[in-house]
Amino acid sequence: MTALAFATTQMQIARCIGQKDFNGAIRVLEGSLSNNSTDIPSLQMIALCYRWSQRNDMAIASAQQVLAYDSKHFGAISLLSEIYAEQKDYDAAARLARLGIENYPEPLPATPKLFFWLLRLGSAVFPRLKRIEASAKRDLADPNKDTREWYSWAKEYLAWYETTFGNKQTPTVH
Description:
Elements: H1 3-18, H2 22-31, H3 40-52, H4 56-69, H5 74-86, H6 90-102, H7 113-125, H8 129-140, H9 145-165
Helix pairs in contact: 1-2, 2-3, 3-4, 4-5, 5-6, 6-9, 7-8
């Protein structure tokens, strides 16, 4: 894929997601798949789009495809752990939460202050950017926020799981 085609595809995906047209984003992403490990970012985004559109079964399938290429992919692990916890598949959620904690990624670097300065300057020239400036500050100021929140959730979940199921040594007879 050429750089221009890649950029065009990324803009289409961003537009679809911004408009909450997750089906459109999925169609664009699926059109870019090459059936090898380079598909991991696209498959992860497909899984997220399915999750955002409340189609968890499809999100699970896409995240599992990611794990087929990279069994320690943090994004897929964290997504699956949350879905399984919601679906009350507690054992799978706990197993994935442990795996996610074991494969916790290195922190991402902070967004350069120059970026926010340029955005502020641009919003002074182009008033439509003011809305983008506020959301960029909220969403980009701390690129590790979601990862840290998941980590806190996973620790709490595992503590709950151990308290609730940790003493079970044998299956319960109903």
